[in-house]
Amino acid sequence: MKKVITYGTYDLFHQGHYNLLKRAKALGDYLIVGITSDYFDKSRGKFNVHDDLMTRVENVKKTGFADKIVIEEYVGQKIDDIQKYNVDIFTVGSDWKGYFDYLNEYCKVIYLERTEGISSTKIRNAHCIRLGVIGNERILDRFLDESKFVSGMEIAGQFAENDDIDYIYKAKKSGDLLQYFSLENLFKNIDAVYINAPLSQRSDLIEKALKAGKHVLTEFPFCPDYNKAKELLDLARENNLLLMEGLKTAYCPAFGKLIALVKSGRIGKVLSVEANFTQILGKELENQIRIAGGSMLSLGAYPLLAIFKLLGYDYKKIDFISHQENGVDTMTRMNFVYDHAMASALVAINAKAEGDLVISGTKGYVYVPAPWWKTEYYELRYEDINKNSKFFYKFEGEGLRYEIVEFIKNIKEKENLYLAEDDILAESKVLQVFQNKNLTSYF
Ligand code: CTP
């Protein structure tokens, strides 16, 4: 019996997939189809696969060509599968020509002709979200670079007022980004906006965009005024628009898994969370202060995310200690007291400390090394070191691609955002309290 194996994602199952499977089956007597797992796809740079694994498996099954379906979960699995199932022929479409020649050592490799004019990417792009950019601040170049990894959207243009300052970034300088000279014109040509303007202008711009019927992805922090934040979230909800805070950690593959692991009780009851994020910004310091403010407004959102996800919003007491330079907090420690737990976070924009996250429980603790806000690796540690375990989930590039994927996906099909309204409001409240200087000690 001649055994054939082929692999693919089979997202939004289309004629090209059908033809390929039919041809693959015709090469032998028994066809094995490998379908990539959601996690494996993400780790190889396919970020916005639309259909979940079960749907993709069902679609392949329905063709009736597959005698066996396997899930592809890791690099190198093809060699293992070929050997395990005693495969005679490995085949894929001609778009991969040459790429799998290394498998000739294990079986015959055949590249089948690809069906012209159709692909999952093309289908995803057919309902492309046109995203406008408002603002032109430091992170924009990274955002644009990362957005190239996301299909189903295109950057339609930019409106930015800050021509006169020193900080005109690559995107605007290069002239690649279509410039709009009024917000109204930009709004006419887009479905959604990414707001990258300084914090002082952000809530006004969010409101304008929502009133123009646009979905909004905004830089963090969302808004350091609780009532205003609530008003904006209400406005979005009432108009059935998506309003999302772009805090990348919330959407990276490992962070949610880390929280779920802790919630499942593996370290017992959580008694303490310590999260630090410190930077020495050097010549960018002044610019960062202009864009967001001091260390709390610039970085506080990251530890707050970890603290609220792990301990909830019902803290009994909060206090801050800040180091100030020229009236700006360049280093701040915040302390939370909960009924049966405590949390502490250090943020700095002109000082450096270890940027790790430690979650301590009654049975053990989780250690996430710096930079924990780009969560990729963490360890479960116990008194008995034999019980320790390590976890790794790849964090790609600058990580902004994860939040962009989430934004685009949620515009198309609303699901619950990981960074929900309650998290955003809790963040706003803390930032507002921090700005009330009576509650804060300075040195
Ligand atoms: N395929 C094909 N003809 C097409 C599209 C895909 O023969 N028009 C083949 C691929 O070469 C591969 C298999 O179908 O052997 C599964 O491909 P997959 O990557 O899942 O599909 P694509 O449509 O190419 O997906 P994407 O656009 O996300 O890359």
Ordered list of secondary-structure elements with their pairings:
Blueprint: E1 3-8, H1 15-26, E2 30-36, H2 38-43, H3 53-63, E3 68-72, H4 77-84, E4 89-93, E5 108-112, H5 120-126, E6 129-134, H6 140-147, E7 153-159, H7 170-174, H8 183-188, E8 192-195, H9 199-211, E9 215-219, H10 226-238, E10 243-246, H11 253-263, E11 270-278, H12 285-291, H13 295-299, H14 301-311, E12 317-325, E13 328-337, E14 342-348, E15 357-361, E16 364-368, E17 377-382, E18 389-392, H15 400-412, H16 421-435, E19 440-442
Parallel strand pairs: 1-2, 1-4, 2-3, 4-5, 6-7, 6-8, 8-9, 9-10, 11-14, 12-19
Antiparallel strand pairs: 11-15, 12-13, 13-14, 15-16, 16-17, 17-18
The structure holds cytidine-5'-triphosphate.
Cytidine-5'-triphosphate is lined by residues 6, 8-11, 16-17, 20, 92-93, 95-96, 114-115, 118-121.
Please explain how this structure is put together.
The chain has 443 residues and is an alpha/beta fold. It has 3 domains: 3-119, HUPs (Rossmann fold); 122-248, NAD(P)-binding Rossmann-like Domain (Rossmann fold); 250-395, Dihydrodipicolinate Reductase, domain 2. It contains 16 helices and 19 strands. The protein has helices at 15-26, 38-43, 53-63, 77-84, 120-126, 140-147, 170-174, 183-188, 199-211, 226-238, 253-263, 285-291, 295-299, 301-311, 400-412, 421-435; strands spanning 3-8, 30-36, 68-72, 89-93, 108-112, 129-134, 153-159, 192-195, 215-219, 243-246, 270-278, 317-325, 328-337, 342-348, 357-361, 364-368, 377-382, 389-392, 440-442. A hairpin with an 8-residue loop joins strand 16 and strand 17 (377-382). Cytidine-5'-triphosphate binds at residues 6, 8-11, 16-17, 20, 92-93, 95-96, 114-115, 118-121.
